[in-house]
Amino acid sequence: MSRKIILIIVTAITVLSIFILGILAPEVSQTFITIKVTGIEIDKSDLEEVGTGDNLNMVVVLKNEDRTYQIKWKVLPVDENGFSTATNKNVTFNSNNPNISVSNEGLVRFPQDISKSMSTIVTITTVDGSYTDSITISYIYVNEVVVD
Fold this sequence. Notes:
five-stranded mixed sheet; Immunoglobulin-like
């Protein structure tokens, strides 16, 4: 092959490669961008006031029929629709009461045979950045007496 034909082929391949990379580059580059966690936020819309005066607390209150509570949270930052944009959304859960378990998905479970009121503070920690937020969940046992 002549040098002129080889030069034309190499130029064509180069132009084609630049064109293909120009189309794919935005998608490929987004794959490698890491968005760091900036915080965590627990949805506390279910909180109720319990107690009075200096003993006033904001807690999730569960009654006799409820023995579980699903925690809802967002790893920050979030986009305009409220969805997390962080690359690593992994979190861990910790209950300060060993009798109350919390699953990896944030489901809090009080014992089935519970016969007294009890509470726990659940702390969620982000794997990226170790940001934390906490929520208090109280189970209120009511010994119902039926009067005829």
